[in-house]
Specification:
0% strand, mainly alpha, 4 helices, Methane Monooxygenase Hydroxylase, Chain G, domain 1
Length: 113
């Protein structure tokens, strides 16, 4: 019996899942940095070092996701969800073009598999 073929979007889906974790970690570090600044914590340098390291991996993962085209619905959904994770909740929605971009991401993220 043959094993099922891997999804053409397997790498994209993996990167998107990784990106969700990187985004969550990065946001936590931003909060930690603000708290360390406010309290004049001696941990500030360590937090900033972690932020810099995280920013590099975050950007590299985002670039890899950008370069890989989605070939399946699952890949498109994963890519839309990763994009929304980055922009939520700060994505501007003041202009019709911004609302349209957001609606495309939302529709793709919520589309049935």
């Amino acid at each position: 019996m043959n094993a099922p073929a891997a999804s053409p979007d397997a790498e994209l889906i993996r990167l998107c899942a990784e990106f969700h974790q990187l985004e969550a970690d990065y946001r936590r570090l931003l909060v930690a940095e603000a708290r360390a600044e406010d309290s004049r914590s001696p941990d500030l340098d360590a937090v900033r070092t972690a932020l810099e390291a995280g920013a590099g991996l975050h950007a590299a993962t985002m670039e890899a996701i950008t370069e890989l085209p989605a070939r399946t619905r699952e890949g498109l959904r994963a890519k839309a969800r990763a994009t929304m994770a980055f922009y939520t909740p700060d994505f501007p929605k003041d202009y019709p073009c911004e609302r349209m971009v957001w609606s495309v991401m939302r529709d793709a993220a919520e589309a049935p598999a």
